[in-house]
Amino acid sequence: MTYEVTAATREYLLRRHGLFIDGEWRRPQEEGELPVEDPATEQVISQMALGGKADIDAAVASARAALKGPWGSMTADERGRVLLKYADLIESRSQLFTELAVLDNGMPYVLGESTGMFCSMFLRYYAGWTSKISGMTLPSSGGGRRPQDLLAYTLREPIGVVGAITPWNYPFGMEILKIAPVLASGCTLVMKPAEQAPLAALLLAELAHEAGVPRGVFNVVTGLGETAGAALAAHSGVDKIAFTGSTEVGRLIVQAAAGNLKKVSLELGGKSPVVVFPDADLSKAIPGAAMAGFMLQGQNCVCGSRVFVHESIADAFTTGLAAAAKAMVVGPGFDRSAMLGPVISKVQRDRIERLLATAEKEGARRLCGGGRPHDRGWFIEPTVYADCTPDMTIVREEIFGPVIAVQTFNDHDLERIAEQANDTVYGLSGSIWTRDLETAHRMVRLIDAGQVGVNCHAAMDPSMPFGGNKQSGWGREFGQEGLDLYLKTKAVTVTW
Ligand code: NAP
Ligand code: MG
Question: Domains (ranges, CATH) in the chain?
Answer without folding.
Answer: 7-268+472-493 (3.40.605.10), 273-461 (3.40.309.10)
